[in-house]
Structure of DUF3022 domain-containing protein:
Amino acid sequence: MTIRRAPSGREPGETTASPDLARRLAELERALANGFPSESTVVAHADDASGRLTIQVSWVRLPVGESGREWRCAVDLVLEPGVLARYAALDTSGRLRVNAHLCDVARRAVDARKPRVEDAAIDCSVSVAVTAQMVDDAARGP
């Protein structure tokens, strides 16, 4: 797993990342990276203009055998402003439930993207909006 932050891994709208937000961002990145097959790369992008934070998990599933195709996959989880702070404020069990929920939502989004069989390389890139309501609902559990 490779984790890169761009530009600074900070919560949008902040001049510096608080240690807690930076730890929680790293925790969320690890959970997402571990939720997908193959070696994955995670990059976090802060957009100061919109206040959004995007966490991108990408991986390449190499072909198996001569007839296999290479799958290039990426999931962009676009966190609305304040979502990371809301996630960071949760207790450990709440954060674990949110991690599991976001991984599940992201995997389902990738699975729903039915690639065309005739493509030489299969692109399964999707974007998922992560709202405060989604985090709150996941933290409460079933």
Summary: Confidence is low (pLDDT under 50) at residues 1-16.
